[in-house]
Amino acid sequence: MQFRRPITVRVIRERTERHTYHGWTWVDCYVLDAKGDAIDRRELFVMPAGLRPVTDPVTRRVRAPRNAARAER
Question: Which pLDDT tens digit goes with each residue over 17-27?
Answer without folding.
Answer: 998 999 999 99
